Amino acid sequence: MKLRSNSTTFAAACLMLVPLGAVGDGVPAPRAARHAAPPLHVAPLTTAARKPNDAGVTIQYSVSGVAQIGRPVSISLQFDGVTDPDGATVRLSTDAGLTLATAASLALPAGQRTSATATVTSDREGLAYLNIFVTQNGAMSVVAIPVQTGAAVPVLKGAGEMKSGSGGEKIISSPAKEPKEPKEPKELK
Predict the structure, then answer these.
(1) What average pLDDT does the segment 69-74 reach?
(2) How far is Cα of residue 126 from the mean position of the Cα atoms in its chain?
């Protein structure tokens, strides 16, 4: 038997000496770890905008994956900043086109960060919203989380004609609509 002293033969010989599944530190990886699915990508949380007179609860969310008709999509929710000793309450609702498959209400304890997952299923393409109503100390915050199903992008209806103003600004000229006839007030009994 004749040995060759080239680098390819040397590399092949070295690889045969390394046991299958070995990790860089020389310890073989557990069998389950070698065949485990890669970790799921976790989307970063988006912090919802707050108003000065809201309930004082910070709401963060992320929509995992892309919504498809008839397939559930999970929306991760995180609530923080509950200061009322009685806690706060959350109510969830959906626009037409979305169905909520999880509980529609949630209690938030004071002084704790609360995480929850809402699961919605879309029955049509387009944009719909998961609506979140948070109440604390009699004040309410409302957040609408967009759920885009399919590639259909919402389009505004053309309402008029584009013109240029005297200063070069763009103006959409729309015809005036006929006012509706006022309805007669109903008699109170």
Answers:
(1) 94
(2) 15
Q: Name the residue among 64, 73, 77, 74 with its Cα closest to residue 141.
A: 77
Residue 79, domain member (yes or no): yes
**What value, to the nearest 5°, has the Cα angle with vertex 93 and ends 50 and 59?**
25
Question: Mean pLDDT across the chain, nearest whole number?
Answer: 77
The pLDDT score that the predictor gives to residue 94 is 95
What tokens were used for 27? 């310890």
Look at residue 27 and tell me if it is in a domain. Answer: no
Q: Is 91 exposed, middle or buried (0-12, 13-18, 19+ CB in 10 A)?
A: middle
Tell me how far apart the alpha carbons of residues 120 and 123 are, in angstroms, rounded to a whole number: 10
Would you say residue 122 lies in a domain?
yes
Contact 100, 117 (CB under 8 A): no
The pLDDT confidence band at residue 42, using thresholds 50, 70 and 90, is: low
**Residue for token digits 């699915």?**
37
Region for 58 from its dihedrals, namely left if φ exceeds 0, alpha if ψ lies in -120 to 50, beta otherwise: beta
Give the number of residues written for the chain.
Answer: 189
Q: Which domain holds residue 79?
A: 46-149
The token duo for 10 is 């040397």
Q: Pairing between strand 46-47 and 58-64? A: antiparallel
Residue 37, in any domain of the structure: no
Model's pTM, two decimal places?
0.60
